[in-house]
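User: I've been going back and forth on whether these two constructs are worth ordering. Before I decide, could you fold them both?

Assistant: Sure. I'll take them in the order you sent them. The first construct and its structure tokens:
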Amino acid sequence: MSRGRLAQWGAIAHNPGMSEASSAGDNALPLSVTELSSALKRTIEDRFSYVRVRGEISNYRGPHSSGHVYFCLKDQGARIDAVIWKMTFSRMRVRPEEGLEVIATGRITTFPGKSAYQIIVEAMEPAGVGALMALLEARRAKLAGEGLFAAGRKQSLPYLPRTIGVVTSPTGAVIRDILHRLADRLPVHVIVWPARVQGETSAVEVAAAIRGFNALAPGGFIERPDVLIVARGGGSLEDLWSFNEEVVVRAAAESAIPLISAVGHETDWTLLDHVADVRAPTPTAAAELSVPVRAELLASLAGLGGRLAGAARRTGEHKRAQLRASLRALASGEEILAGPRQRLDRAATALANKASAGLRERAIVLGRLSAGLGRHTPAAQVAGARARLNGMGRSLARAAETDRLRRRERLARLSGRLQAAADVTARQRAQYPQRVDLASSRLRRAIAAGVAQKRTRLDAAMQLAGALSYRSVLERGFALVRDSRGEPVRRAASLAAGQAIRVQFADDEISAEVGDASAPAPEKTRAGRTRRGGGPAQGSLF
């Protein structure tokens, strides 16, 4: 709009008579709708740039998707549209609620798109203490309906916390009272999270402090507290309103760390007191609830130590009496060893008889084999004798090893029983080692004699086997002929001319070839070996 048209509009607005004259003569320049709406907007904003309006909130549906808030303020005779911009809404301490009577502070403006006027709200407060109490009661009922105040979800405080987190103002007297009381009762590590406890941003800061303590990892660089204390001094309902905000109550309900509420004096109650795990009447009382008295702990520990020592002493006396009764019920060492000693003697006698019978049986078999030696070839007899001799040697070795192991096991068992009897019978302790040594020496002598006797018989058997071996026959000038497969040749008829054979003498073995019986006798070579025809020198028996 130009300055001339604006001046003209202003003159018409202040001089209605001029307007009538102009309209009668149709000489006035018409205004556009936009020009008129803009002029009205500036006039209203200049006139009502700061107003405080009291009314009841109506048609509130929560923040818009853009973050702005739209609702109405009404009384018995009128209503006015209201708007709270997104940035202003985020800083407000009191939030709009349907049916809440408030005092809104802001400025009046128009909305040309609807030819309507509205108030841009910049601050809001409940209309008196009665409204605050009504809002508090409605909020308490809402949160209680969600189960946030249920006793079943409250946590128990740890008996001996190592670290305590405190959410309060670092400059007030509250933190000093808490630290002083903790130092008197039981000094612990205290972490203070600074937060405003009054004002528009106090509720957000307290909720952020509670969530910040819970976000600390156990065993991290900053130790996670075992108990949280949210504390503030006394004040009016308006002063303590931050602790009635939903953001604080929900943060306390979500806390995995046990939380103590110490807001105001004993007669002051907030919603934080309902949701907290423990409510303390004062900050000093919160410090007393969080830790026990060190002197009482020491006294209790001393009493428990005395009871433990007495119980241990009585238990030891009872066990000692049981041990004495068990010692009286045990048999003496001589009675324990009597049975095993008899079994050992019988086993030794039976072993000697069985060994003698076995050797006699083997001697008879060996005599029979010797008598039938002439009816068998030396190789077969020697092979059979060697197999039987090996079996006898292995059996004898196994028998000797088995006997030695059995005697050792019995000796070990006897030694273990003797040791146990010696531990139990203290009066005969000096006699047991002598008896054990005597029994051990007798056992060792018996084992040594048995082994020596068996070794002598084994040597005799080995000598007999050597005498019967075919090698002694070779020493007397005989020779052993084998074919290419190593089998002994028993008949000359089983050989063919030109067949390769091996002849074993007492000192060496040579290769030979079977010659033709009708061929002339071979000539002797220089080396003494026979040569047949022009071929290489080789021996022949045929």
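The second construct, handled the same way:
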Amino acid sequence: MIASKHMHKAASAFGACCVLLALAAFSSAAWAQVGYVHEVSGSVSIQRVAARAVAAKVGDMFEAGTVFRTGTDGKLILKFADGEVVALGVHSALRVGQYRYVANNLRQSTSTLELMKGEMRFVTGSIGAANREGVHIIAGSSMIGILSPGGADFTVSVNPDPEEVGHAVVALGEISVRTPYGQIRKITAGQYAPWQSGRTPPRPMPFAAAPAVVQATAAALWATLLPANTPVAIAAAARMSAETAAVGAAMAAVGADTGLAGYVAEISNTVSIQTKAVRMATANAGTTFEAGTTFNTGTNGRVVLKFADGQLVVLGPGSVFGVAQYQFDPGNAKAGRSAINLMNGAMRVITGYIHAANHEGISISAGESIIDILNTGLADFAVVVDTKDQEVGVAAVTAGEIAVYTPYGLIRKIAAGEAAPWQSGRAPFPPQPLAGAPAAIQAAVAALAATMLPENTPVVVEIAARAAAAVAAASRAQAAANADPGNAQLRAAAQAATERANLATQEAAAAAQSVAATLFATMLAALPPAVAGPAQAQIPAAAATMAPIPPAVTPGGGGGCTGSKC
């Protein structure tokens, strides 16, 4: 009996020793930064290991063992080194568990999170995409497993008191949940599954059938603007977020104008810009513009303009172009308006969301001619017009169909693959295949088609413009480094500029995703109840289907990269 007691004490001592060693190892590893606070609003606290809780702020870096708590008005977005993203709702508490990211060996990488109470949205990063067994998510007393290769995007809510009640909603991928009351084997995209004390969890059901309060809380998290789920250098990303937040606060303090129509996505040589309030100035990549702006490309300038709704305009040399009217609200796309005018020169137009939602809201003129888009889907066409003497022009269509009301008569329909010219002294020529058009016309159209383009999807103008400027700056820095390979200072500057450009591009992509989600939610709200049933689950991941479908582009065919990421 005495020997047994001694053995018990020895075992207890050994166990305590192991616990202390484990805690010591955890404590030393805990100080490695694993992520940063990307965004915060309202009352949010951060409590690091062995420290008091303090108010969280954008740019705060954190380590394993950190606890975040949101108040009744608090919201929080965290981003981890591997790209994993967590959005925490109001009145929630989250503990960051063990985290290890090995970029070149994801099978050795792990991530553990514990939602102690409240609601969060979770989007997998590189670890979850390549090694889903390495991701451990605890919600109250329940365990969530990621089933789908490539990761998942889901929300989970849990209230542990007095007995656990929770639910999960999946936007992308598939998950399982082991609850205290039984296993939910598989919840797929578009499904909702609850659990509570006293009953076996029911089978997952369509999200459209979930209680209104569940739909509302999940929708609030889906509407949150998230960063892209791509790996980051934590210190650089944290610094960028802090700087962006500071700029945003400063703009809000002075009541910055949010009525921007678009921005300069790409530019070559000298292009001038003139607004109502400002004399003529030189445009640059990232320059924003409003209705009332005029562009002049001079003798050799080229420019790509992107509008908030995704509409793209390419201007060739010798062009004068004006934005007469522009209005776009993702929450009311049907009220969108766009009026543009090519006064002289060459332009290519690819329609955006205003045309998709409100066909009658588009007005396009070239000289004294008016272009009418006949199809309701995407249109991609080029117009060249010379107004110096008596108007001479030509229109060529890549996708969709247009009509042209010229000063000399109506061209009723120019279909995809066709071109039609007009000139003084005779009725307009009938459309003919572009391949049979004069060489000069083919060359003018080909020059516009060869321009590399961004996607024709809606954007947040200010954020997308900042990314365009950062990409252009990185390109210049890299060119300078390439010109002087032995200059270490130029190489370092190029690397830093590239990092800034990558972060800015990720931020712009995430902002565009948020706009797409708003457009999708608006469309869904307008559908009759019979249509918005189980097959139309309210999942923003499907929002991309709302964007105008771009034409297919043959790689290397000179068609730019509309609809693809160049």
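Notes on the second construct follow. The first helix runs from residue 2 to 30. Residues 1-30, 250-257, 530-566 have pLDDT under 50 and may be disordered.
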